Amino acid sequence: MPIKPENRHRYPPDWPDIRAAVLERAGHRCERCKAPDRQRIARGGGDDEGTYMLDTAEVFDAETGERLGQIHMASYQVKRMTLVVLTVAHLDHQPENCQMANLRAWCQRCHLAHDREHHKRSAWLTRRARSGTPDLFGMMEGQDSESTEPALSAPEEGIRDKT
Question: DSSP assignment of 40-88, as one string?
C-alpha cells in the first residue's frame, strides 16, 4: 500500500532497503496466502470461493496458501482476475516500528484483512472529529477519566455513527 504523504515522516530513511529485505525474506510471496508477487491470479467465486488459481491451473487456499491441486481452467469459477502486489504490513500498525519481527510481506487482500479493524476504528475517530459533536461525557468511549490519550474503540456492532 502506498505511503500517504502525511505519514511519510513516520518511516525511516532506509525504508526502501527494509522493504526489499522483507520481500526477499518472503521469497517474493505473500507470507499468509503464498500468492506470488507481480503475477496475475484468478480469485475464485461460487464453489471456488476462498481459493485462487495461478496460470499453471494450480489452485490454492486463499487463507493458508495450501496447494489444493490442479483443475482444468474451464472448470474453475473465476470471480475476478487480479494482479498480486506485495505490500509490507506492520503487525502493530506503527510505521516507526520497523523491526523485522513486526513486518510481513502480504498481498493486498491479506494486508487489508489484517488492517480491517484498525481502519474501522480510525475512520470512526475521523468522522467523530470532523462532526464537531462534543463528547457529552468529556471522554471518548473506553477512555478512563485519568487518561489523556483518546480511546480507539468504535461503536458497538450494529450502531452507526450518523455523521
Answer: EEEEE-GGGTTEEE-TTSEEEETTT--EEEE--GGGS-EEEEEE---EE
Q: Which helix (H) or strand (E) holds 25?
A: helix 15-25
**pLDDT (tens digit per residue) in 89-116:** 999 988 899 999 999 999 999 988 877 7
Q: In angstroms, rounded to a whole number, what is the distance separating the alpha carbons of residues 100 and 90?
A: 9
User: 90 by DSSP, 3-state: which?
Assistant: strand
Contact 117, 157 (CB under 8 A): no
Which residues, at least 6 apart from 40, have a Cβ–Cβ distance to it below 8 Å? 55, 81, 82, 83, 84
3-class state of residue 35 by DSSP: coil
Q: How far apart are CA 68 and CA 139, in angstroms?
A: 50
pTM of the model: 0.70
- Backbone φ/ψ region at 62: left (φ over 0), alpha (ψ -120 to 50), beta: alpha
